[in-house]
Structure formats: C-alpha cells, structure tokens
Amino acid sequence: MKRSPRLEHYRQFVGNELLDQIYTAAASLAGLHVLHVNTTAQGGGVAELLHALLPVMDELGIQHTWKVVPLDDSSNRFEAHLVDLLQGIAHGDVAEEDQLVLLDTLRRTPLDFVHFSSVTNSMSKPRKRRAGD
C-alpha cells in the first residue's frame, strides 16, 4: 500500500488508526479513475479542498481528473440556493424554471458524469466503465 508523505506528517496528531483507515479507503480506489467536478477553480471551498487533496491522491497513486463547469449567474444562484435548502439554511421550494436553467447549462457541458461536491456528496456513484475506458 502506498503511503503519502503529506499524510504521514499528521500521524503524530491523528494517530495510527485514522491514517490506516485513510490508506485502506485509498487502496479501494486502486484501478479506478476519480472525476472531480465543481464550478470554480479558485476561491470556492471545494476548489480549495481539491488543491490540497489532489497532491495526496497523486502520492497514493489514485488516478483523477478535475473538471470545472463554469455556470452563468442564474445557474450559480440556483446552485447556491439549492445548497442552502439542503443544509437547512433556507426553506421553501425551488422554482421549476430555476431548475431548468441549471439543467440546460449542464446539458451543454461535455461530461459523462456530473457531481457537484457541495450538493450531492452522499449521492455520488462511480459511473460504469465502458469498453475502451
């Protein structure tokens, strides 16, 4: 099992058990390709996390790609509102017209799989490999 010098730096603070769990989880990704998709490359929380995570994934030998799907202002407002609803910060419904704006933006984006980290963490699933993948 590959080790990460970046993670090993924290062993003294988090202990052996947590790092062993991380390494076990990382080993389960062997042979898979992880696609990270979010809406900003800089400045957002997910982007900042990915800037720290991707070098660790490299050290662990986990294949990955990061795609940024830029959203227009209307889609950004919808996505932010949806996150607020899911986190219980806002209450109410999402207008169907607002949903259609985001879906239209995603349809114009050439990706096989879309995962917005801030919205669907618990719902993400790896896509099935196709012949030639």
How would you describe what is shown here?
- The protein has 133 residues and is mainly α.
- It folds into 2 domains: 1-34 and 44-68, no CATH class; 70-119, no CATH class.
- Helix content is 50%, strand content 9%.
- The protein has 6 helices and 2 strands.
- It has helices at 5-8, 11-27, 45-59, 73-86, 96-107, 117-120; strands spanning 33-38, 63-68.
- Strands 1-2 form a two-stranded parallel sheet.
- β1 (33-38), α3 (45-59) and β2 (63-68) form a beta-alpha-beta unit.
- α4 (73-86) packs across α5.
- The longest helix is centred in the first third of the chain and has 17 residues, at 11-27.
- The two termini are 24 Å apart.
- Mean pLDDT is 79; it is low at 119-130.
Secondary structure category: mainly alpha
DSSP strand tally = 2
Low-confidence stretches: 119-130
Oligomer: single chain
How confident is the prediction overall: mean pLDDT? 79
Share of residues in helices? 40-55%
Q: Within the largest sheet, what's the order of strands? A: 1-2
Quick description:
The protein has helices spanning 5-8, 11-27, 45-59, 73-86, 96-107, 117-120; strands spanning 33-38, 63-68. The protein has 133 residues and is mainly alpha-helical.
List the helices and strands and how they pair.
Layout: H1 5-8, H2 11-27, E1 33-38, H3 45-59, E2 63-68, H4 73-86, H5 96-107, H6 117-120
Parallel strand pairs: 1-2
Helix pairs in contact: 4-5
